[in-house]
Amino acid sequence: MSTTARFRDRRVSLERRATTSKAVRESLVSLAGLIGGPVTNQAGEEVGRVVDVVARLYGADSYPPVTGLILRIGRRRTFLPADAVGKVHAGHVRLRTARVDLRDFARRPGEVLLAKDVLDHQLVDVDGVQVTRAADLYLAPLVDQVVLVGVDVSLPTLLRRLGPRRWQARPTPERVLDWQAVAPFAEQATEGPPEVRLRASRTALRRLRPADLADILEDLGRAERQQLLGWLEPEQAADALEEMEPAELENLLREAQPEHAARLVDEMEPDEAVDALRDLTPEEREALLTRMPADEAAELRRLLTHREDTAGGAMTTLLVTAGQKETVAQVRAVLAEQAEHRTEIDAVTVVDEQGRLVCDMPLFDLAVAEDTTPVADLVAWRAQFGPPVTVHPDTPLTEAADHLVAARASSVLVVDDSDRPVGRILADDLLDTLLPERGRLHFRRFLQ
């Protein structure tokens, strides 16, 4: 889909959302303006003052319904259920009846105090792919209940909140994010079942690319960063970690619980995992390795024995191998099983019965060949281009880069002294290693 088409689809989607409805916009109530406002009965007499608004943030509703208010009555703080609220105006609340049932407040699963847990806190703008802060929250009546429909992230709103009381209650929705485009963090909230609590956030976050998630993780505070990692599937989190700046990734692994950090590193590609482990102290590194499955930990320990500036220190051990007696269809089936590692595989290594290298078969050659074609036939055809370019684990990276450029390839194989493949160095890994001072390029941040 073209960029223009994506923006058009996003605009159409946004136009259907609640905050773009004229009727809803005209009835918006500022949470910041409501806090501290009076609560009156039907006779207009003040009963108390609003301390906070309770909403069911992690339920199945697209727009979280308000379930009640926290009131201050004299020196007492008490809970007023939503069914006792008649009308929520800008800056004050009117009760439905003269007699109200005031209860002690106890959080229920999924409930959040909007002023305490969300207002002025970090959140993720999923549509804009950025971390921002809630300057105000907007409520609106919807059918027979009051719901949370949007988040204001503009600087003028912060200034409005510093002004006189009459300004604070006036919504200024110049830059409002529709609630469905937000992944909030409410660290103090009572959590319901994970599949309910994470429904909206996971659906939105799955749309983001690993590089976008990496940007978000780098911008979040420590608590929010760990909470976001907990929301993501381990594979998705590992992909994002592979895109992070080394210093940020180092901090993240130190912040996380060792069991969680070990699980994340275990999900990363071997070469990326080794890079992450190298930045830790020997004690921290060992603490993670001992918490990984034995086979994976042994493989990473072996890779860590290679110097960082050598082919062995930059290679990935993820290889897809094939024998000459296999058919193209059989090799494709093996590749299909490795779909999650597609970015690490650009060729299939053909070996003989002793495991020695015969040919490095590009994926394009496999893609255009007939299913029934024996791999041996492709090997014979590739022979006209000469032997595959290889390096040894102790080959300096600068020399490996020269081989890669000379071969005009996207990767170079690493073989041992017996010519058995032990790894592969991809072009992007060479660039990351040889040009560390440039870091990763964040075009989105620069343009903003």
UniProtKB/TrEMBL annotation:
Keywords from the named record: CBS domain
InterPro entries: CBS_dom, CBS_dom_sf, Mg_transptr_MgtE_intracell_dom, MgtE_N_sf, MgtE_transporter
Pfam families (UniProt xref): CBS (PF00571), MgtE_N (PF03448)
UniProt KW Ligase keyword: no
Keyword Lipid biosynthesis: no
Source organism, top-level taxon: Bacteria
Domain CBS: 383-441
Classification via SMART domains: CBS, MgtE_N
Name of the molecule in the record: Magnesium transporter MgtE
